[in-house]
Amino acid sequence: MIDTSPSLSTLVESITLSPPPLSVAAWIDRSTEEGVLTPSPIIAQQFDQDILGDLSDAWTHFIDSGQVWAMVIGIVLGYLIRNLTAY
Q1: Does 11 score more than 70 pLDDT?
Q2: How far apart are CA 57 and CA 63, in angstroms?
Q3: pLDDT score for 81
């Protein structure tokens, strides 16, 4: 009996998923040669943040919204329930 099924190497060679990825230098060269703007990856961003100001605003909102009272009541009730159920 003659085996007519393709070999594994033939099957693997026939599979082409996509072209190999370009290096960064080759990608930049190709995009400048074509004269087309291509999307570039964002490497870093700078933010003008005031961390202490943000914390101050969050704390003020926490107090003004009454969430501090919910936290205090939760701590007191949790402490009482823990003491009532502990031996």
Answers
A1: no
A2: 10
A3: 94
